Amino acid sequence: MDNFFSHFSNKSVLALFIAFLLFLGLYWMVLVVLRKLGKDPKYMLPTGVMKNLALPIFLIFISIVMRMKSLRSVLGLGNEEYLFLKASTLFFIFSMTWFVLVVIKVIKRIVINNYNINESNNLRARKVYTQFNILERIIIFMVILFAIGLALMTFDEIKEIGISIFASAGVAGIIIGFSAQKLIGTILAGIQIAIAQPIKIDDVVIVEGEWGRIEEITLTYVVVKIWDKRRLILPTPYFIEKPFQNWTKSSSDILGTVFLHMDYRVPFDELRTELTSILEHTDLWDGEANNIQITDSKAGFVEVRAMVSARDASDTWDLRVLVREKLITFLQENYPESIAHTRVMLNNSDTDGK
């Protein structure tokens, strides 16, 4: 016991004490700076940032202290010093990796908080959400892979085993490479989606004959939320290799069409006036497109197309349904003869024979 307390009277204990005080001072300064910045909305940090960063920072400090010669002398390590240093190195890699991952998530939250994906004109927000969601997964994967590599490289025995395995497993490596080709292609497709952005979060798409919204994009698959709440899961290469419809690629506003098959006696001018009245009395219309055209004529009917526009795909769908119902009701009440009829002509000779 006396020998143990004698260690605490030397310079090693003083060095440890000074290091601890320096850490507390640095930590306090960081808190003061962040609190001052937090008063300015321009530099506002998400809630819980310091709570998430505190533990990994503290573990980094502990790992650094573990490598100090003064601590080893205080502990009186002998043959165990090598294992202690090795443990401190692994501990530092672990805590630093944790710190980097937390910082990545904090940066993502700070950037995303500046954009509101629930706005009607949310093209910019959807681009940022898509890029950060995919790139976050890529960076996290690379950081963890790099950390595992660093941890393994600290062991000379494993390093030598790895070199011998790579030297004697050329054929196996080729086989594994071919086997992983599809997986690598899938990951590269995810990276390409993040950069080129043929699809974005909340995009309205028609895929495999289904109408839905992009709900989630990962490195390997994409989730499409169908209008009836089903989920369509597709691999990421699908959106690189196959054609599909993207209704909100460049903007959220979209045109909608309503087709009516009417009799030749339909009053076109009255129909245009009624369409204008319908659009002016609904909040679904964005005030842009308002038009009626005759797009085709058949033996028994004419094809009338009403073109309207709305802020986004959901409003466009609701507006089309509303316009179709109101126009049909208007014609039923005021011009019932405009509804398409099937005419049958009877010859006078046939009627006389009867």
Task: Give a short account of the largest sheet.
Answer: 5 strands, antiparallel
In the CATH hierarchy, what is the architecture of the largest domain at level 2? Roll
The tally of helices reads 13
What pattern of helices and strands is seen along the backbone?
A: HHHHHHHHHEEEEHEEHEEHH
Structural class: alpha+beta
Describe the structure.
The chain is α+β, with helices and mostly antiparallel strands and 354 residues long. The protein folds into 3 domains: 1-114, no CATH class; 119-252, SH3 type barrels, CATH 2.30.30; 254-338, 2-Layer Sandwich (Alpha-Beta Plaits). It has helices at residues 2-7, 11-38, 49-66, 69-75, 81-112, 123-153, 156-168, 170-179, 181-196, 238-241, 268-280, 313-334, 348-353; strands spanning 204-207, 210-217, 221-226, 231-235, 245-246, 254-262, 285-297, 302-310. Helix 3 (49-66) runs antiparallel to helix 5, helix 5 (81-112) runs antiparallel to helix 6 and helix 11 packs across helix 12 (313-334). Residues 1-9 have low confidence and may be disordered.
